[in-house]
């Protein structure tokens, strides 16, 4: 057992609007040999996710805000280097919330550590398709949106980590799927994943154009909307919803960096006449679905029904750039940073 | 059996914005002696309801639009004058959708007729507390909003036919209730019905003032919002909602007469982080609750737990004025027209 040193990231200041590189600063990280109850870990992968933007505001939310100068946190995969905890041994593969750094020492329970059994999946999948974004997609489309066979489903952000998984689950359940994404490369990906119709929202850059494209793709309307984007997408989905439509509201990335107040959907009155259900959700509420999720996901991946795309940046020094890339639409599928 | 003649109302033209008297015109109604399968009815009461405004637009909706020059329809209570239908006899008390007229002859099934057993309730109650608005309140608060004992409940339009019933059901279920209404007279009524806090929205005529009043009334936030009003009320409710809050979206009377597009709630992103459910509904979807509703309502009225207020205008010639009164806030409780 020996001390390790490494690098981590903290907020230098709170971003205003779109985050920028100088909102972040590096911090030296020391990962000493573990004391009783601790483990020493070298992270191999870390995750950047849109929800992290919310924690950069100083406001009450479902997760507490990041503090200036303190190490950021997030999903990470790592290997135990040394253990002074009875449940962990050198070489164990773990997922934790101790991301945004390459090495760390600490108590497993303080870092939301889970030991990972052998799954045959690559390690990076534990942060994507078989991790938090995968479960978000699974719980959101199956339970929150109460997906039924034959539904017409609209998914925004369909090339992202969550959206691309939603598209595929809906296809597995024999639904008609319309996915929206920005740019032809991403739209091709969504199409390859099985979507019946793809809308390039960058080629439809007014609300009316987006609405027209959605109406064309779903002339009889949509039963389910899985919202990753908010804004015009949400409004168009309300406009095209069929009676009793179900909306799983997972995120609104179009609004995360807004510095002024964003107007809500101007057609929300349709929620009454169409008897729509709009249901916001956070993946942690659906933790009970985790075992079935892993089982289904393993089967689907094995059968070739579930593909996953990753966009990888290499090295801890790239972490902020990977994060900023989420809001620039630079990722296809899961955005990751490879650390070792 | 003899022919009867009377008066009914039709649209003279489609209202633009707030309806006006000259959007309506009287029509002579003949109610001849019934032919086979028909009944001849004299209406004693008719209902005017906010939802009727929606049917005056020429657009697809959950109920088809009224046609210019054709008799309007709506809830009515009447007495069978003569019957050529085996299930009905002279003197039967019925509810139907053949309102907006004082006499009529027709087939029961074409006019959504239900024969009413002796309930001990006054006839007018069949159009209010024990009728469609009562069931709307009952189904909306108990099933759509999934009310739980101890919830903090916010009800807008709390002095109206539906809202005043919601307030009382929530009090029967041991909830803390905040009701909003316009003007001190209505607010006093809401208080008398048992609301713990009352907000006079006319005395808080900016969004910020309304929000401040709601925060003061519910410093720990609200679990349930029953929306009759939309607009600022909905936005304030989202702002004050606790995690997992449930919204029954029953109507948005603030928007029914709008001639331009109304902005949606600018804080709808909170639906995600707070995991809110916004669920629009129409009473007919919950028809299965009717028997239990009537049972509960009879018990509650008998016990003195459920009071109801009516605002009555007299004579078929007053029907449009009663309807317009709904949007001028002239009703406490159910707005009715007494016909006989």
Automatic annotation (TrEMBL), chains A, B:
InterPro entries: ADH-like_C (IPR013149), ADH_N_2 (IPR041694), ER (IPR020843), GroES-like_sf (IPR011032), MDR_fam (IPR045010), NAD(P)-bd_dom_sf (IPR036291). GO terms for molecular function: oxidoreductase activity, acting on the CH-CH group of donors, NAD or NADP as acceptor. Residues 17-337 form the Enoyl reductase (ER) domain. Keywords: Oxidoreductase. It comes from the Bacteria. The keyword Oxidoreductase applies. CDD domains: PGDH. This is NADP-dependent oxidoreductase. The lineage of its organism: Bacteria, Pseudomonadati, Pseudomonadota, Alphaproteobacteria, Hyphomonadales.
